[in-house]
Amino acid sequence: MKYQRIQDLRIDSDLSQKQLGEILHISQRSYSHYETGSRGIPVEMLIRLADYYDTTIDYLVGRTDNKEPIKPLKAAKQ
Question: Does pTM top 0.90 for this prediction?
Fold first, then answer.
């Protein structure tokens, strides 16, 4: 499974695979494997990517087209 969205988000952020790998504390090669789908992305890494891009894991893996994370109800009322 190719993870097109993580590639698109990286490119939109003007980051190289090497730069994002450094941010995530992984090698460029490992990150490249995630983008191309030659390796599955561990849940912990999906969480880190979603946090970095302020989006959801569901968006990253293509389960939704809604890029915005759901805000807690308490925050929405303020």
Answer: no
